[in-house]
Amino acid sequence: MPDLMNSLYNLRLLDGLARKETPVHRMHPLVKVLVTLIFLVFVISFDRYEVIRLMPFFLYPVIIFMLSDIPAIPFLKRIVIAMPFVIGIGILNPLFDKQTLVISGVAVSGGWVSFFSILIKSVLTIAAGILLIATTGMDKIAAALRMLKIPKIFVLQLLLTYRYISILIEEVARTVRAYSLRAPMQKGIQRSAWGSLVGQLLIRTYDRGQRVYQAMCLRGFTGEYNTGNYARLKTGDYVHLLCWTLFFVIAKIYNIPLLIESMLKGVIR
Amino acid sequence: MHMADALISPAVGGTMLAATAGVAAYSVKKIQNDIDEKKIPLMGVMGAFVFAAQMINFSIAGTGSSGHLAGGMLLAVILGPYAGFLTMASVLFIQALFFADGGLLAFGCNVFNLGFYTCFIVYPLIYKRLMLKGINSGRIFGASVISSIVGLQLGAFSVVLETLLSGKTELPFSAFLMLMLPIHLAIGIVEGLITSAVVVFVWKARPEIIEASYNEKETIKRYSAEQENIGTYSPGKSCGNVPIKKVLVSLIIATIIIGGVLSWFASSNPDGLEWSILKVTGRMELETSNNESDTSSEIHDILSKIQEKTAFLPDYEFKADDSVMEKSGEVPVEEEAWPAVSPETSVSGIAGGALTLALCVFIGLIIGFVKKKKMREAA
Amino acid sequence: MSHHKLEFKNVHFTYPDGNKAINDVSFCIRHGESVGIIGANGAGKSTLLMLMMGIVFACQGEILVGDIHVTKKTLPMIRQRLGMVFQNPDDQLFMTTVYDDVAFGPRNYKMDEEDVVKKVNYALEVVGISHLKDRAPFKLSGGEKRSVSIATVLSMQPDILIMDEPTSSLDPKSRRKVINLLKSFEHTKVITSHDLDMVYEVCNRVIVLKDGRIMSDGSAGEILTNGGLLEECGLEIPLSLKSCPRCGSTIGRVQE
């Protein structure tokens, strides 16, 4: 099934990207997580009609993107792929919000402005998420989670899920492929096979879970998850966190685009 | 079903994150105290399984379309509510992070919508109750279908509430509901059918898998006979009192703090919230956004008071009156006017906006240029 | 050195579904021995390994590791002495990097991180995979995965290495690598396998199982050339011991 193989490909791609060596990759994962979260909070804190004051926030994804050596087209593709649901809800705004705004002498529907705002916020938030994972990788994210005092058991479970996703995807893909080779006319799994096909997979997965549990116990697992020491935060990390946070705060409070425009006007005059 | 960041407000996102964190912490405690750690690798592989199984096309006879499995009910049945909830959370985490399926700040909302209702409301109140008299195919079928339908309806309703309280869309409450509920009814039916087919099959082939969490304490005793090793040397873990009170109290405190802090960010345009409240209380003042700034609105007053108190930069005020400039600072700061965006702002901002965007791109290009230069020098 | 001894005394084991998998098995494996356990599918090989590791417990009889009986209480000590490599490496590699997998064991025994680092590096070097330290398991080939599984066990420095089908599904080169690796280990080794040629190369003693009983227990050279015995147990003479298809000459002694 194309979906399955695409997911696998996506995971492998992101894993490969996360192993690169760039200034962004080398940054401490906790800092990256915090900056991303702070960025997200600020972006979505703007009200529904805000478009212009969101512009300075593009600086963050642009800088991170340029510094992190991520290929542009897959990056943009992923942003686009993630948009449909948001667009589906947002596109209804013009229908319901009939208030008109006058912009540059042109009357525009408020609904379109808010839709545009949603679009921009989507691009910014999705881009920030992709940049985070493409420069950090699951291991380091897990380390950041532990530093945030998320319970170890949850983090271990998360790592295990991530680890076995590729195996399960391959197993499901094999099973479905075998099915479709013997049912060429059908598009999906027919009802009579729902239970047995998925049920067998589930049972096999359950047994695998038992075996993994045994493997863990044989290596001394008693329910506690011990991790190594995690890297300490350096001054550079704190500075980085501070700088970006400061920038976001300033961009939120002051209307930077207007500033720029008035400066330009002043220069022109 | 997965909510995106762009559609929620920090207050809603933060509250749901806190709520999810609270439930998750409670679940972790439960797993540590009552259930042995055998569950953890099982949770891991089941999470991976649900993730992969969600991509299977289940063709629905007669309609030519296909359905998919969400998996919340299935996880609850196989793993029990606590482990099931945590597993669902990790599946959604990976989806949000690696596939941009659901936002990072919206993670709390999504886990709550897709995990909490199925694991903690529907599973104990509906599914288990229907199974009290014993397990058979018929009961599994009925219980699965009803549970899935109710679970998904609750989740869908939750999505509507969260979206509206965030105030980013114009969709009226009833229209949104009309949109979400019927769709999720159909999805729920399909989910129920798939879940029941799978559970029935597994129960017939390997009953202990289903019965394990259905009757946890008893099954642990039964199957932990000498033949089947629990595999671990548990040095007397106390089946403890889970300090529910503590967890609840911290949850409430966290919610208040987060909500309070984030209300500084709260949209100065809370008409989504107000609209719903107005509708509910019957004081129908149709939200047409053509109203003049109605600074006398009570709710808005309360919110601005909260914001005044919690804002740590008191110069900047979320005032609805667009004639108020901030008290200090040389630079003209544009206020958010509410509910209408003042025309002056819109006009003069656009050029600046375009310029700013161009500036960002320009900075990016410079970085790219410098990078390439460095690479050429190094080569 | 008695603690390197592994002993089964009249062991019986029946699965919950009634299948009597082990029927009065007794043997003693001493320090430094390299023992191959062979038999047809269903003969009880895997069950034997599970009994050794304490994954299941005997219904009757005793199992001793060193001088310690295998019981629930003694499991932690037993599992520090015995290291088991599973048949399917994906069941054994459950962390997201090779390093974390190899470090999992030592970390569970609450060692200092510096000790953990030393043990991990040692294990990786012995197996020859230090360059794979930060790889994700899904990026490894079958042979590499197998090597990593062995490393995950070696980092705990067990006395006895137990391996379930170590050369299954490996390509010839990886197989050769694993065989050379096993030959280089000085640990006491217990290996189950269908790869009788590997057993002949690596093991000096062979135990043949059939229907849960020991049919024969002796030197590898004697048993693996005993065509009649092997046939009876659902096996056959390994390729390297058969007569040459061209000239008909034989390498080992053939007992007819």
Structure overview:
The complex is a heterotrimer of chains A (269), B (379) and C (256). With 269 residues, chain A is an all-alpha fold. Chain A contains twelve helices and two strands. Helix content of chain A is 73%, strand content 3%. In chain A, strands 1-2 form a two-stranded antiparallel ribbon. In chain A, β1 (100-103) and β2 (106-109) form a beta hairpin. Chain B is an all-alpha fold and 379 residues long. Helices cover 66% and strands 2% of the residues of chain B. Chain C has 256 residues and is an alpha/beta fold. The chains are: A mainly alpha (269), B mainly alpha (379), C alpha/beta (256). At the A-B interface, α1, α3, α4, α5 and α6 of A face α1, α2, β1, α4 and α7 of B.
Rounded to the nearest angstrom, the distance between the terminal CA atoms of chain B is 49 Å
Question: Any idea what the shape of chain A is?
Answer: globular
Q: Could you say how many structural domains of chain B there are in total? A: 2
What is the N-to-C succession of helices and strands of chain B? HHEEHHHHHHHHHHH
> So what's the CATH class of the largest domain in chain B?
Mainly Alpha
Low-confidence segments of chain A, given as residue ranges, are: none
The radius of gyration computed from the alpha-carbon positions of chain B, rounded to a whole number of angstroms, is: 26 Å
Mean pLDDT of chain A: 85
The total beta strand count of chain A reads: 2
Class by alpha and beta content of chain A: mainly alpha
Overall body shape of chain B: globular
Taken as a percent bin, the fraction of beta residues of chain A is: under 5%
Please supply descriptive tags for the structure shown above.
heterotrimer, A: 269 residues, mainly alpha, 2 domains, two-stranded antiparallel sheet, 12 helices, 73% helix, 3% strand, C: 256 residues, alpha/beta, Rossmann fold, 6-stranded mixed sheet, 4-stranded antiparallel sheet, 10 helices, globular
Helix and strand topology:
The complex is a heterotrimer of chains A (269), B (379) and C (256).
Chain A: H1 2-18, H2 23-26, H3 29-44, H4 59-68, H5 72-81, H6 84-90, H7 93-96, E1 100-103, E2 106-109, H8 110-147, H9 152-181, H10 191-218, H11 235-253, H12 256-268
Antiparallel strand pairs in A: 1-2
Helix pairs in contact in A: 1-8, 1-9, 3-8, 3-11, 4-8, 5-8, 8-9
Chain B: H1 10-34, H2 39-53, E1 58-60, E2 65-67, H3 72-79, H4 81-99, H5 107-130, H6 137-166, H7 173-205, H8 207-214, H9 216-223, H10 244-263, H11 271-281, H12 298-310, H13 343-378
Antiparallel strand pairs in B: 1-2
Chain C: E1 6-14, E2 20-29, E3 34-39, H1 45-53, E4 60-65, E5 68-69, H2 75-81, E6 82-85, H3 89-92, H4 98-108, H5 113-127, H6 142-154, E7 160-164, H7 172-184, E8 188-192, H8 196-202, E9 205-210, E10 213-219, H9 220-224, H10 227-232
